[in-house]
Amino acid sequence: MHILFFSRFFFFFVFLTIILSSKGFASDARCYKIGVIGTGYVGLVLGTCLAEIGHTVTCCDLDTRKIDSLNNGLIPIYEHGLEELVIKNLHDNRLFFTTEVAEAIQSNDIIFITVGTPESLNGEANLDFVFDTARTIGKNLKNPKTIFVKSTVPMGTVQKIKEIITNHNHFNTPFEIGYAPEFLREGSSVNDFMNPDRVVVGAENPDTASLFKKIVAPILKKGAKFLSTSIASAEMIKYAANSFLSVKISFINEIADFCELVGADVDEVAMGIGLDKRIGAEFLKPGPGFGGSCFPKDTLAFLKAAEKNGTSLHVIQAAVDVNDFRPSKIVDRLETMLGSFDRKKIALLGLAFKEETDDVRASPALKLMEIMVKKGAFIQAYDPIAGTQVQNDSPNFEVKASLIEALAGVDAVLLATPWKEFLEFDWTKARLLTKGDLFFDCRNLLDPVTMNEATFELIQIGKKIDRF
Ligand code: UGA
């Protein structure tokens, strides 16, 4: 009787363990009730992934239309794998979307602040949304809570958020606060969330850091490093990480230009230095400069924050200067090859700031377009995903629905975003469509042999220049 009972119990336990581990949860993983305020890019990915690892998550936003469509499983951004996860977790009742921010604050034990910190006119981070959220949290603090800030904020902001919450906390409810910097990349954010190199949290109270560790336990189980720091260090880590990567990009872009002058190949040089573990192979791809909603904004905000604190960040300033000048340098080079842009038709391939996203914010492709248009060129642009995101207010710029249409009758091609579609295209057939043979691949995406066989005059970045 006892043996039968224990063997049944044992098999039930094994079964339960298999079920839980198949869902990716550690047997000691705890599920929390979490509210996420702000369903922009970071909030939506964070909320969805927290639900996916087992928590019950309510994502809030004041934008009714956005919340309605999210409740129908439609996401407002193009992000690989995200829509499927939203639908799955909505269906499993672990993910909820609402416009009732006060209600979400009151009914959840843990609150993440993920509202935007856009660039203000003077380059500083605009903290209005963050401070508004802090006031709303303070007013609705009816039971103890832990608040984690995820928005990218300058050093000292979390302390200000704490003060604002305290000033509006009329019930004197105890609360803790921490800063958890975000390292997700657009286009691969779900994978980045689930398989990070490290998870960082800044907190005054060690219990706050250990709560964060418990929240992300299923991720840490896969081997990510966990780093607990002071709040000021965590705020600095976010800006320093993005700035360091920006420096790497500007560095390789300058090296690329130098390579051209002495007959070296930048891709070989990047590999040769990147194999040194102290340098690392990532973020050494030359191109038209860094863009997107983070690097350009964060480097500027970091510079401003340093200035406010009476210091200067010369290396980062240099990276920004190199980046600002990058698009015109590329256009100048194309102009030299063409003789002039006057009445020239150019196919601009790619509009998104990088591949696998529909985001065109601070996209180098758009800067290239603007400069070429000013110089008198007519641009036929194409992007596999981001075409509809671009405002078309110039008669000299047209977004085409297909790559074939963009190539029709052009004098030259400028590839600005390294989409897979461009890599897989039949360039021999494409050559029948273009008028000229000049092809400037400023992402070093295409194979020179294939392009040569297709009778294009391929120019890449940081390669030996034969003709020019
Ligand atoms: C960046 C960081 O990589 C993330 O870690 C961070 O979380 C995020 O900012 C943020 O702060 O939210 P993201 O802006 O999505 O992510 O894009 P990246 O993949 O970093 O690329 C940024 C820009 O640098 C793009 O224009 C890209 O084309 C360019 N880049 C990147 C290069 O020109 N060369 C490279 O080798 C790598």
Describe the structure.
The protein is an alpha/beta fold. It folds into two domains: 25-229, Rossmann fold; 326-460, Rossmann fold. It has 19 helices and 14 strands. The strands form two sheets. It has an eight-stranded mixed β-sheet with strand order 3-2-1-4-5-6-7-8, sandwiched between helices. A six-stranded parallel β-sheet has the order 11-10-9-12-13-14. Mean pLDDT is 93; it is low at 1-6 and 9-28. Bound molecules: uridine-5'-diphosphate-glucuronic acid.
Q: How many DSSP helices?
A: 19
CA-based gyration radius: 25 Å
* Unreliably modeled segments: 1-6, 9-28
Structural class: alpha/beta
Distance linking N and C termini? 90 Å
Task: Characterize the main sheet.
Answer: 8 strands, mixed
Which strands sit side by side, in order, in the main sheet?
A: 3-2-1-4-5-6-7-8
The CATH class label of the largest domain is Alpha Beta
Question: What best-fitting shape do the alpha-carbon axes yield?
Answer: elongated
Could you estimate the helical fraction of the residues in percent? 40-55%
* CATH fold-level assignment of the largest domain: Rossmann fold
Architecture of the largest domain in CATH? Answer: 3-Layer(aba) Sandwich
Mean pLDDT: 93
Q: How many domains, in number, for the residues?
A: 2
* Beta-strand segment tally: 14
- The fraction of residues in strands falls at 5-15%
- The CATH homologous superfamily of the largest domain is termed NAD(P)-binding Rossmann-like Domain
Small molecules held by this entry: uridine-5'-diphosphate-glucuronic acid
